[in-house]
Amino acid sequence: VMASMAHLQEEKLQLQEELLRLQEKLAAQENDELSRSLQLQGQVETLKAKLLEQAQEISRLRSELGGTDTEKHRDLLAAENERLRQDMKVCEGELRELRRQQQAPCQDCAHLQENAKLQERLSQLQQEAEETRAKLVELNLEVQQKTNRLAEVELRLKDSLAERAQEEERLSRRLRDSQETIASLKSQPQQVKYIIKTVEVESAKAKQALCESQSRNQYLQEQVGMQRQVLKEMEQQLQSSQKTAAQLRAQIMMYEAELERAHGQMLEDMQAMEEEKNHAIEEAFSRAQVEMKAVHENLAGVRTNLLTLQPALRTLTHDYNSLKRQVRDFPLLLQEALRSARAEISQAIEDVHSTNRELLRKYRRELQLRKKCHNELVRLKGNIRVFGRVRPITKEDGEGPEAANAVTFDADDDAVLHLLHKGKQVSFELDKVFPPQASQEEVFQEVQALVTSCIDGYNVCIFAYGQTGAGKTYTMEGTAANPGINQRALQLLFSEVRSKAADWDYAISVSAAEIYNESLRDLLGKEPQEKLEIKLCPDGSGQLYVPGLTEFRVQSVEDINKVFEFGYVNRATESTNLNEHSSRSHALLIVTVRGLDRSTGLRTTGKLNLVDLAGSERVGRSGAEGSRLREAQHINKSLSALGDVIYALRSRQGHVPFRNSKLTYLLQDSLSGDSKTLMMVQVSPAEKNTSETLCSLKFAERVRSVELGPVSRKAELASWPSQEQLEVTEGLGVPFLFLLTPGIASGRGHTSPSLGQLSGRAASIRRKLQTSG
Ligand code: ADP
Ligand code: MG
Known about the structure:
By secondary structure, the protein is α/β, with parallel strands linked by helices. Among the domains are: 258-381; 384-618 and 629-705, 3-Layer(aba) Sandwich (Kinesin), CATH 3.40.850. The chain is 66% helix and 11% strand. The protein contains 17 helices and 15 strands. The protein is elongated. 21% of the residues are buried. Adenosine-5'-diphosphate binds at residues 391-392, 394, 466, 468-474, 583, 682.
């Protein structure tokens, strides 16, 4: 119910959101419209401004056109007239003011004086005006007179012209008459001569009068011509001014027409814009209406939705309220439940505690039992175990048939190995066999139990046995990238010690020594060439110790690396050919772990001896002489002694010949008692090494096959074959002596053999004898 209510609430919220969105949209549209109408108004304004500009332009043009002299003059006169009118108005205004002031009673004599002055000035001005007016009238009169006179002169001119014409006519008539009379008088010579004489006298007078009248006539004619010229010029001026006036008028008309057109255009534009605006507004309005309608519809839908939701909401509210009540009561219930649960839990914890305690007690008991069983198992298995490791074929093995692989393995049994020797397959069974592909890690895993047991106070020896080049050093030291048992063992010890640090204090120290030609040298000492002696502890404990053997306390992997490096450098500086030297000497790394249980005060000491033995290969009896022979004899002796000791130990002989070699003597306390020993027999798989491989594997099998349990007389009688004996019996495959030893067969970790087992083992040995020829 809560969920559905929440859902409904969500839906409601969504709808409200939608409504809000639509309202916002509407508002946005309204805003849009407003802005659009504002825009249109702005446009109208700009058009108006443009119109004004055009009108101004027209008036400017007009003023420019009025630039002709007459118009300018006229305009100037009009302006002057206007100015004068203004002046007059001002003067009249002043006058009125003065009059008003005059009428206003004034006691101030300064004002009165001023008034009087002003009146005086006024009267003066009036007088001046009167005079100017009179002068103007006079001038007008004069102008009138002059015009009258001009008219008179014109009239007189006309009269005189007429007179002259008459006179001319009269004179010409008299001239004709006189000529006629002359002619008649000619006919009457005397009389005529007199008459001629009088006429001649009279004609000179007439001639003079004629000349005078002619010159006067000419002057008048000139005057008339001048007047005519003036008239003509004036007419021309009038005509030109009329022409310009007509032109101006035409231009004005043109401008007016243009103005009219512009105005019309503007009006049209405005009309169009108005229409457009109206149209846009209408459109927007209709759109808004449509949207509004949609919104309304939506709203109506929402409303109906809401209406349908309401009953559901009511039931939900009801449910919610009941739930709320339940929730309110919930803490109490919860507390109650919690209280009871807590009680139950504490009870359960108590139970678990007690069972735990019981279990722990049982576990401890089991642990002790297991340890006992383990020790028993180890005891039964034998404290001495033998592993085999086959190295891979390397480049050093060369190529061809010599480098062919001669070693094969059993897919079902990791303890079995087959060697093809001279065309025959010989099988060997050890405690475990590592094939070439086995990693350092895998090898170490099989070894690590031994290593950790030295923390518990056990002494441990791990030997690498085998011919030179079979991988002893690789297994013990390894490479920097892939370290061997030595480094891994120390790392493991460090981590084990760290994990026990809560209860135990441990100290780990290391020594490194070398046995060469039966002399012991300290590889970590300041004088490595010094020969060390092995001595019995003077405390009468029967323990051995080597006075002067350097012991380094190590706490980390770095410390170990330093120790190894130091030992290596010492070994290298002491020999001309390290490889050869190392193959003819035994290298020992002795790790001592001393522990103190802080609660009980119990002290433990465990020793881990990691030995890289000298090469087990046989040196040809003939040919070897001098130092090489001596070396070979020493190696042979010490390896035989090691075999003897292991044999004696495993067969529990009363006497163990530890003193037969430096190596066994030094390791005496790490080989006897509860000590654990591992022999790692290294072999090469190459065809060319098969005879050495065979020897090594025989050695391994012999060490392994020494039985535990009650010591038999025969076993007691038997002795470990020397290296020479191994070589002698090589042709037989298995030394003859071993055939006499019971329990010689290849069973792994078995106890005292039963009769049945014995016969089975005899058969297997016989089989081996047959295969090896
Ligand atoms: P040894 O010490 O017995 O004389 P080395 O340990 O020096 O023999 O080994 C001889 C060569 O074989 C070395 O180059 C070594 O790296 C190589 N070798 C030995 N065992 C292995 C192995 N398991 N895997 C790879 N290389 C090995
Ligand atoms: Mg080596």
